[in-house]
Design brief:
Elements (H helix, E strand, L loop, with lengths): L2 H8 L25 H9 L4 H14 L5 H4 L8 H12 L7 H7 L5 H13 L3 H11 L4 H14 L5 H6 L6 H13 L6 H7 L5 H14 L5 H7 L5 H13 L3 H10 L5 H11 L8 H7 L5 H16 L4 H5 L28
Helix pairs in contact: 1-3, 2-3, 2-19, 3-5, 3-19, 5-7, 6-7, 7-8, 7-9, 8-9, 9-11, 11-12, 11-13, 12-13, 13-15, 14-15, 15-16, 15-17, 16-17, 17-19, 18-19
Length: 349
């Protein structure tokens, strides 16, 4: 598998600026290469679009943006995926001073980049941006529908739920999965049945995305399905299923993923690190930290992304693996089928 294709498969998709932003270069302390945040900043500077996209998406998810001086030039990067992801990351910061940037990028040659600029404006309080996202969700352009579903989920506005539910019947499988993911961010598992169905899709990339997403939306009843997916001949699907089982409480699968961090081939190590980032399993951090010392920039970036996601998780790994166990006798049970808190959902604009 080519490295660029691998990273695109891994990257399915904030508070104030980081400390020291805007300081003269001479006053910045030397970057600590053992800090995952610094490794991700290094990826932004790498000039390699797959690494830049993965780093930007991670910064977006973890709620800790990179220095503006490093990230802002990437709004004009040659790769449209980088431009799109950077603008989405900027949009999630809700900074009014970035409105001129978003307005300029509304004239970008790439429609997906223009849509990310609309998202940035919407998050800054411009209602025209919200209308543009909703219109794009009904576009004949499948790429726009995919991006609109993703961005509406990031926005965290419950008023978009009705439109997203319609997209659960979209003819494009990725639009369906993006809509299900967006609904989950809004606190709903309404798309779970479609996600389950798409774990059997003809295209293995769709099966991977669906299996990955089932790790977030799934329930105890999905364990047999996930066990079968662990037998997939495609490594990415297999490891995504293992991580999903780990999130359901199977620590044996966690141990297997940890062992795969030291596999002889890069592809296996990278995929194992990627899916471990979804588990919130804090004991994995020391093993992932070893990968930061490797020379391969892909390995370092994926390990740093996994560490950053684990460190920023709102739920501890102990909470996740015990989610299906009955509560102690002195605690009331949660209502049946209560949706989990959506990860990193931004407040509604």
């Amino acid at each position: 598998m080519k490295r660029g294709i691998l990273v695109l498969a891994l990257a399915l998709t904030l508070g104030g600026w980081g400390a020291g932003c805007g300081e003269p270069a001479s006053r910045e302390p030397a970057a600590d290469s053992s800090d995952p945040y610094n490794v991700l900043v290094e990826a932004l500077r790498s000039g390699q679009p797959p690494l830049q996209s993965l780093a930007a998406e991670t910064f977006l998810e973890i709620g800790r943006p990179p220095p503006r001086a490093v990230a802002e030039p990437l709004a004009d990067a040659s790769d449209p995926r980088v431009r799109t992801t950077i603008l989405a990351m900027f949009g999630s910061t809700r900074r009014p001073d970035l409105v001129p940037l978003f307005r300029r990028k509304q004239r970008d040659a790439e429609a997906a980049v223009r849509l990310a600029a609309d998202y940035g404006l919407a998050m800054a309080g411009d209602a025209s941006g919200v209308s543009a996202l909703r219109d794009a969700l009904a576009s004949p352009d499948v790429t726009l529908r995919r991006n609109a579903a993703w961005l509406l989920g990031l926005m965290g506005n419950p008023s978009a739920a009705g439109l997203l539910k319609i997209k659960l019947n979209d003819p494009d499988a990725v639009v369906v999965l993006r809509a299900a993911e967006a609904l989950y961010r809004l606190g709903s598992r309404e798309g779970i049945e479609r996600v389950r169905t798409l774990t059997q899709h003809d295209r293995h990339q769709v099966r991977y995305f669906a299996t990955y997403l089932l790790g977030r939306l799934g329930e105890t009843s999905d364990i047999p399905r996930l066990e079968r997916l662990c037998q997939s001949r495609f490594l990415d699907v297999k490891l995504a299923a293992m991580a999903a089982l780990a999130e359901r409480g199977n620590l044996k699968r966690i141990d297997m993923l940890l062992d795969l961090l030291e596999a002889p081939d890069l592809q296996t190590r990278v995929l194992a690190a990627r899916v471990l980032g979804e588990t919130a399993y804090t004991p994995a951090l020391p093993r992932l930290a070893r990968m930061l010392a490797q020379s391969d920039p892909l390995e370092r970036t994926v390990a740093a992304a996994a560490m950053a996601r684990i460190q920023s998780a709102r739920e501890s790994w102990r909470s996740r693996i015990l989610m299906d166990m009955p509560p102690p006798a002195n605690e009331p049970a949660s209502p049946p089928n209560e949706p989990a808190s959506p990860p990193n959902a931004a407040p509604a604009p």
